[in-house]
Amino acid sequence: MTNHRDIIIIGGGLNGASLGLALAKHGVTSHIIDNGKRADMLAAEFDGRTTAIASTSMAMFEAIGLGDALAGQGCPIESIWVSDQLKPGELAFAPEEGTFLGHMFENRVLRKALFEAMDAEPNLTLHMPASVATRHIRPGGVAVTLADGTELTGQLLVAAEGRKSPTRDEAGFKLAHWNYGHAALVGAICHSEPHNGCAYEIFYPDGPFALLPMNSDEGAPLPYRSAFVWSVPEDKAAAYTKLSDRVFLIEMQKAMQEMMGDVALAAPRMSYPLGFQRTAKVIGERLVLLGDAAPGLHPIAGQGLNLGLRDVATLAEVIVDGMRKGLDPADPALLARYERWRALDVMAVAGGTDVLTQFFGLRGKTISAVRRAGLAMVQRAKPAKDMFMGSARGTSGALPRLLDGQLI
Questions:
Q1: DSSP, residue by residue, 119-169
Q2: Strands 75-77 and 7-10
Q3: Which positions ≥6 away from 324 have C-beta within 8 Å?
Q4: What are phi and psi of 115, to 5 degrees?
Q5: Beta bridge partners of 265
């Protein structure tokens, strides 16, 4: 095993693995360290965890060699339908014919494709399961010691460990955060009525309810499938979790007014608290924060992972361009370029999801009428719809080449 690589990535989730592969395709070597167990992540049974992959993120996956492994595995998102309590004044988005807003994937499908690609990549070494004992910034490089005593060295450290990043905290990054007082109930259902590739977002005073289209199971009694993300007040989350499947489905039918016909649970239910967090900076000395280690968003618009994948594409381009010019991948000017490039997109998406969460959480008939009037107004205004659709697809702003499906 080669203990020195160009980059050390701590966190082998979807963001960390994607970065390692994107760099490897351009000759940049990396160590990826993750304390999870591969078998747990690739269990055969569907665990209910899904992700909406925007069209630009999908283009990057295809560019870094995941296209064949993911072909046909995700359900195309053909439209988005937004409503305030299913009252008149809805908003609908649909791209031009023949294109999609994105695809819905089971997380285990994405992980399987990433693991297989990493196993076949000589420019990447995956340490899993492995935990980090120490991290050090040294003159001219970085070093990480694993719990088994193995020392790994590199030029740049990337923290891709998620919201509770110990690397970020150890480095002293200041974190602004707050709790929304809500929890997300997540899982999946099978149903008798087709979803037609539509992602539904229904806003209630207690929190948004989202239904996201998944590939059908043609041989099943209820052949159509959708993932759900249901935001409820935190003090009610435990009660919802304790409900029997039958009673839970009755409550869910009320939230979607039985528009999916007969329903049954297709995966176990899970719950997690909802909050917002943001660091003022995403770079330090020989250190970059990636994905949820910096901004952690409400799932209201399904932008969390796609925001992280835009981090991946941008950081890969900055590093590859710099190293081709003979620069150290941790050169301060390169890292500053990355931070500037990502700043506006992160600020817009993070701020937008927070405002949306707060605004749709306001109660009262008057504010509900104002919201519905606003949705109807956007529905009639093509420039506004195009702007929102561009945000959903990840096509706003100056895109890194990988998001256009091109290698760097």
A1: HT-TTEEEE-S--EEEEEEETTEEEEEETTS-EEEESEEEE---TT-HHHH
A2: unpaired
A3: none
A4: -60, -45
A5: 189
State how far the Cα of 385 lies from the Cα of 93, in Å rounded to an integer.
7
Q: Note if the bond before 299 is cis, omega within 30 degrees.
A: no
Q: Which residues contact 194 (CB under 8 A, 6 or more apart)?
A: 216, 224
Question: Tokens 């693995």, residue?
Answer: 17
**Please, what is the angle between helix 365-380 and helix 382-393, to 10°?**
90
The pair of structure tokens assigned to 257 is 């007014």
Burial of 1 (C-beta count, 10 Å sphere; 0-12/13-18/19+): exposed
pLDDT tens column, 74-118: 999 999 888 888 887 777 777 777 788 899 999 999 999 999 999
pTM of the predicted model, to two decimals?
0.90
**CA distances (Å), 108 to each of 38, 100, 217, 274, 282, in order?**
10, 22, 17, 23, 28
Most confidently modeled range among 6-15, 231-240, 353-362 = 6-15
